[in-house]
Design brief:
Belongs to the ComF/GntX family. The protein has 9 helices and 6 strands, in the order αααβααβααβαββαβ. The protein has helices at 3-17, 35-44, 67-70, 89-98, 104-123, 135-141, 145-157, 180-187, 214-224, and strands at 78-84, 127-130, 166-168, 191-193, 202-210, 230-238. Strand 5 (202-210), helix 9 and strand 6 (230-238) form a beta-alpha-beta unit. The N and C termini lie far apart (59 Å).
């Protein structure tokens, strides 16, 4: 029996005992996202007008930037997120991030490309870099969810992925538990460019959630200190800011 037949048998067994489910309601669904959740997600999708920097939805067409970006210096140029970080999106990302639902990453990446391929091509990044986890946290979790997203995006967009050039050298406290000033202090010098880094002009950073932008800013700052000219980002979801 050749390897391809054995692989087909394995895949059929996996589907039989662990059928594909919608990542937002966990109902069996071969299409990825079920029809009901598609309708729910439409209400959470970020629409124009968007902040021209962080991509957060803003109320007025007359404004170019959200309140956060008007009062904060960002090291990144621009970024986009697909959905508001509310149920069922936040629950789905939690499963992806902490409960080993790695296959969700492929579906999220497909949705990001479907919605933002035009903008990504305009940014024209030389490389995609996932926001890294500290090695202790990665060892405990077993994987980096941002790396899963980045690898899927790289495959779909035919853009190289570099998971070795940026490292998290500080084991930071969870950002969600901290206030604005504490978040910035928590992430000061948290990231470092490694000896594996090869100079590039444009980088696309990838993470799961954008809350206040402090994590992405800290990563972008480390890259720019090593000569990167422009840094952009993509995330699955975005919070409401400070």
């Amino acid at each position: 029996m050749n390897k391809s037949i054995i692989q087909d048998i394995k895949e059929n067994i996996i589907v039989l005992f662990w059928p594909e489910t919608c990542p937002f309601c966990q109902k069996v669904c071969k299409e990825g996202i079920c029809t009901e959740c598609r309708e729910r997600l439409e209400f959470l999708r970020i629409r124009e007008p968007r902040c021209m920097q962080c991509g957060k939805q803003i109320r007025s067409m007359e404004k170019e930037y959200c309140y956060d970006c008007m009062h904060t210096h960002h090291y990144y140029e621009q970024g986009l997120s697909l959905w508001n970080h509310k149920a069922p999106v936040n629950q789905s990302i939690y499963q992806f991030k902490y409960h080993n639902q790695r296959r969700y990453g492929e579906l999220y990446s497909q949705e990001l490309v479907k919605n933002f391929q035009k903008e990504i091509r305009r940014w024209n990044p030389d490389v995609i870099i996932p926001v890294p986890l500290h090695r202790a946290r990665r060892r405990k979790r077993g994987y980096n969810q941002a790396q899963i997203l980045a690898e899927n995006l790289g495959r779909l967009l035919c853009i190289p992925v570099d998971s070795k050039s940026l490292a998290r050298r500080k084991k930071t406290s969870p950002q969600k538990k901290l206030g604005h000033n504490e978040r910035k202090k928590n992430l000061k010098n948290a990231f470092a460019v490694t000896p594996a880094f090869r100079p590039v002009r444009k980088v696309l950073l990838v993470d799961d959630i954008y809350t206040t932008g402090n994590t992405l800013d800290a990563a972008a700052k480390a890259l720019k200190e090593k000569g990167v000219e422009k840094v952009y980002f993509l995330t699955i979801s975005i919070g409401q800011g400070y």
